[in-house]
Amino acid sequence: MMRDNLIALIKGNKGKIIGIGTGLFFGILVLTVGFWRSLFLALCVAVGFGVGSLYDKDNKFRDFLERILPTGIK
After folding, report:
1. Inter-CA distances, 34 with 12, 29, 39, 41, 45, Å
2. Residue 46: domain span
3. Cα first-last separation, the chain
4. Residues 17 and 44 occupy one common structural domain
5. Residue 61: CB partners within 8 Å, gap ≥ 6?
6. How confident is the model at residue 14 (pLDDT cuts 50, 70, 90)?
7. Same domain, 39 and 25
8. Per-residue pLDDT at 28
9. Cβ atoms of 55 and 61 closer than 8 Å
10. Residue 30 and residue 11: Cα distance in Å, rounded?
11. What's the number of domains the chain is made of?
C-alpha cells in the first residue's frame, strides 16, 4: 500500500524530482570542481545530447557519420 502511494507521488511529481536531482548534482559538481568547469561539463553534455538526438532522428546524419567514422567506432 505504501509502495503504491510512493509510486503515485513520484509519477505525479516527475518534473520536480528530476529538477531537484539535477540541481543537487550540479551543486555538488560546483562545490567539487568549480563553477566554470561545471559549466563547461554541462555544455559538453548538452552538445552530446543534441548530437545524439540528431543521430536518433535523422537517417541522413547517421549515414554521414557511418561514412566518416572508422568501422570499429560504429
Report:
1. 34, 7, 9, 11, 17
2. 34-74
3. 46
4. no
5. 54, 55
6. confident
7. no
8. 93
9. yes
10. 29
11. 2
- Grid coordinates representing 38 are 561545471
Residue with cell 566554470: 36
Q: What would the grid cell of residue 57 be?
A: 532522428
Q: Do residues 22 and 30 make contact, with C-beta atoms less than 8 angstroms apart?
A: no
Q: Residue 43 is which amino acid?
A: L
Q: What is the pLDDT of residues 15-74, one digit of tens each?
A: 888 888 888 999 999 999 999 999 999 899 888 887 777 767 767 766 777 778 776 655
| Cell numbers for 3 | 509502495
Let me know whether 15 and 44 are in one domain.
no
